[in-house]
Specification:
The complex is a heterodimer of chains A (about 120) and B (about 110). In chain A, the strands form two sheets. In chain A, strands 2, 4, 5, 6, 9, 10 and 11 form a seven-stranded mixed beta sheet that branches. Helix content of chain A is about 0%, strand content about 55%. Chain A has no helices and eleven strands. Chain A is mostly beta strands. Chain B is mainly β and about 110 residues long. Chain B is built from no helices and nine strands. Chain B has strands spanning about 10, 20-25, 35-40, 45-50, 65-70, 70-75, 85-95, 100, 105-110. In chain B, the strands form two sheets. In chain B, strands 1, 3, 4, 7, 8 and 9 form a six-stranded mixed beta sheet that branches. A three-stranded antiparallel beta sheet of chain B has the order 2-6-5, with no helix packed on it. Classes of the chains: A mainly beta (about 120), B mainly beta (about 110). Chains A and B meet through β5 and β10 of A and β3, β7 and β8 of B.
C-alpha cells in the first residue's frame, strides 16, 4: 500500500531547529518528486519545498535559506531540516508525493509549534 | 501566502449546484494544470480533480473541473451535507518554481 507518514513535530523556541521525517512505503522516495506543504492553524495550504527525483530542490520564499529538504534512499525517507524557526512557521507540515502537477499521497501531518 | 484567489465562502441547499472559482495568472493557471482538494477539519487534503478536469478513482461525477485562460472552477452538483468542507485549488507556478494554492473556499450546505 502506498503511504507516507510524518514524524518529528513538536514545540520549539523561536530561533531553534527541528527536523521532520517522512517515511514512505509502497514506493521509492528517490524515484519520485516529493514535497512538503504546511498549514498554519485556521489558515490555508502553503507549499514549502520540493525535491526532484534527480535531486534538484526548490523552496518557497518564506523559508528559503532556513529550511533544507533532503532524502535518504536507503531508508526511503524524506526530511525537512528547519532552522531559525519563527512563530509564523507554526503549522501542520504535510509530506506529499508530488507528481509534478498534483499531489497524490499525503501523510496525516506533523504539528510544529514555535513558541517561547 | 496564497497566489490563487478563491471566494471565501459558497453555499447551497441539498441537491443544488455550487461553483467555486479560482483566479491566477499566466505563470500558474495560464500555463499549468489545475488541481482541486477538499479538506475536512483536522484531516489531510483529499484530491478531487487533477489536470484541470480529471477525477481520481472513487471521486463521484458530481464533482467536475474546468479551466479557461488564467481561471479555473470546480462545480459540485447534487450538493450533499457531506460536501461541507474547505476546498482549495492549486497549480504549478513556473515563475516561482513551486506550487501555489488558492485562498480556500468554505462550502456550507444550508
Amino acid at each position: 500500500e502506498v503511504q507516507v507518514t510524518e514524524t518529528g513535530g513538536g514545540v520549539v523556541q523561536p530561533g531553534g531547529s527541528l527536523r521532520l521525517t517522512c517515511g514512505a512505503s509502497g514506493f521509492s522516495v528517490s524515484s519520485n518528486y516529493m514535497s512538503w506543504v504546511r498549514q498554519a492553524p485556521g489558515k490555508g495550504l502553503e507549499w514549502v519545498s520540493i525535491i526532484h527525483s534527480v535531486g534538484r530542490t526548490f523552496y518557497a520564499e518564506s523559508v528559503k535559506g532556513r529550511f533544507t529538504i533532503s532524502r535518504d534512499s536507503a531508508k526511503n525517507q524524506l526530511y525537512l531540516q528547519m532552522n531559525d524557526l519563527r512563530a509564523d512557521d507554526t503549522a501542520v507540515y504535510y509530506c506529499a508525493r508530488d507528481l509534478g502537477d498534483f499531489f497524490d499521497q499525503w501523510g496525516h501531518g506533523a504539528l510544529v509549534t514555535v513558541s517561547s | 501566502q496564497s497566489v490563487l484567489t478563491q471566494p471565501p465562502s459558497a453555499s447551497g441547499t441539498p441537491g443544488q449546484r455550487v461553483t467555486i472559482s479560482c483566479s491566477g495568472s499566466g505563470s500558474n493557471i495560464g500555463s499549468s494544470y489545475v488541481y482541486w482538494y477538499r479538506q475536512l477539519p483536522g484531516t489531510a487534503p483529499k484530491l478531487l480533480i487533477y489536470r484541470n478536469n480529471q477525477r481520481p478513482s472513487g471521486v463521484p461525477d458530481r464533482f467536475s473541473g474546468s479551466k479557461s485562460g488564467t481561471s479555473a472552477s470546480l462545480a459540485i452538483s447534487g450538493l450533499r451535507s457531506e460536501d461541507e468542507a474547505d476546498y482549495y485549488c492549486g497549480a504549478w507556478d513556473a515563475g516561482l518554481s513551486g506550487h501555489v494554492f488558492g485562498t480556500g473556499t468554505k462550502v456550507t450546505v444550508l
